[in-house]
Amino acid sequence: MSQERVFLLPDVGEGLTEAEILQWAVKAGDTVEINQILVEVETAKAAVELPSPYAGVVGTLHAREGETLPVGQPLITILADADADADADADAGVDAGVGVGTSPDSAAETAEVSGMEALLVGYGPQEPAGRRRRRPTPAVPTARPVTEPPVAEPPVAGPPVAEPAVAAEPPDPAVGRTAAKPPVRKLARDLGVDIATVTPTGPGSTVTRDDVRRAAGSSPVTAPEGAPGSVPVTVPESAAETRIPIRGVRRRTAAAMVASAFTAPHVTEFTTVDVTATMRLRDTVAARREFRDLRVTPLLFVARALLLALRRTPEANASWDEAAQEIVLKHHVHLGIAAATERGLIVPNIKHADRMSLRELAEALAKLTGTARAGRTTPRSMTGGTITITNVGVFGVDTGTPILNPGEAAILALGAVRRMPWVVTDASGAEAIEPRWVTQLALSFDHRLIDGQQGSELLAGIAAVLHDPGLAML
Q: Which of 266, 332, 352, 447 is catalytic?
């Protein structure tokens, strides 16, 4: 017996209130299975694929691509087989908490009891090991025809990811949808371009940003090459100004930064460090066999120095509980790394970074940055952070005054590592000026939790390890 099941848009993070529909993977009339991908949505934190909690036939899509939908509103209606759903729940052995009346906490607790990783609200029961989830060919939704007015403004984006150009190939007629990444689709919507009419030149006949810009009939205007945050922005010649809607990651980041700046009393301290010894160590480590498949950067050693310094200043790995009027000391370090992406600034974190070896930390950094650039950072990886590093040095900037990530007590800014003249004192006390590798560090901290002495000790401890990595042996 079939019955209508309405899948409500779940909160796929912590307290998120809305999500933008990026791309539907199904259309009305399609047959779907439990855990089959239905749609990709963009929250204020990440792009997330939502699988089906029911098996059955797609009835109605309640939102179009590009539309922002509040959490708890109908997302899709599925004509589900009640008996099949019951059998699936029995086989899984748990109720994953899908649809109306199930809370995120209850779903997570049940999954953890069964030894599985906690599922997001709205996710169906996991499939047995070894069984692959079927991902259908994406199709254009037809359940509710709508007309979307074109918007002339370009989107806000982080540093662009290079897209190699290859010979143009006509799209495969067997595919019911033009192949393009979600950010490219977003650009097409913002420029009022029907992406189905764009000639693709990307790998595998995918549509690139340049393809969309050419179809819009305007050429990209870019910031000077190498400029921090430079990104191609299409601007009509006749336009006197450009208005960009504030939404998604940008809106979330803005709200969080304002709340942090006006809630936590920030103090920022600076220090300039001779890191020549660390740069020599970096070269030695990068040449080792176990690191040859990894990118060994100064950020890796700064992260390691911070983790070591935290052992002497654990007060910096804490949070302020206003409601309980308590300082919460964390006995684990979930190290946040600020990352500039096409969706804006995000801060995913490395879980239990304090327990990792240097190679494990290098692998975690590479995975974190790669996932962030691909737009596949999960909500879980952006929650629970305890302290953050922001690497402004990649933009050639010496340093800055970073704003605390909400809920954390400290954030460290790493500036550019440069060759500079430096006064060096030898063992006999004689001084000489030599070219050395030098960087600037800036530490912002919450003065409610961390006194000036503790903040200074933490920054000095980081600098000491970077100046003489041998101190880590002590």
A: 447
